[in-house]
Design goal:
Number of strands: 0
Largest sheet: none
Strand content: under 5%
Pfam family, one: EamA
Distance between the termini: 15 Å
GO biological process, one term: lipopolysaccharide biosynthetic process
Family: Belongs to the EamA transporter family.
Transmembrane segments: 37-58, 70-87, 93-110
Structural class: mainly alpha
Shape: flat
Number of domains: 1
GO molecular function: transmembrane transporter activity
Number of helices: 6
Length: 111
């Protein structure tokens, strides 16, 4: 397997965890607007997004530009799974159907 694909998959996972941290921060109430934006979850979340951006740009070195959006779409699946694990969000039939379409599109693209 191409190392650049692995780097891009790592980037997708890092961005997904960053979104979970930002959602966790958004669910809390804060005493001031400054604390709302300068807290552990927000700083770590945006830091991870920044890291994800660099990993994605680095992965462009060894991948075709047409492959990257296809692999990035796996982020939807990862975020859904992480939301279930961390927030106990329900995975409905509609979500499963949507994820099946995304995974089928990835499968069709790479076949």
């Amino acid at each position: 397997m191409n190392i650049y694909i692995l780097i891009l998959l790592l980037s997708v996972c890092v961005a997904s965890f960053a979104q979970i941290l930002l959602k966790k921060s958004a669910a809390k109430t804060y005493s001031s607007p400054i604390r709302e934006y300068l807290n552990f979850y927000v700083i770590c979340g945006y830091g991870m997004m920044f890291l994800s951006m660099f990993l994605t740009v680095f992965s462009y070195r060894g991948l075709d530009f047409s492959n990257v959006p296809v692999i990035e779409s796996l982020g939807y699946v990862v975020v859904m799974l992480l939301s279930y694990l961390f927030f106990r969000e329900k995975i409905t039939k509609r979500k499963i159907f949507g994820m099946a379409i995304i995974l089928a599109g990835i499968f069709v693209y790479y076949r």
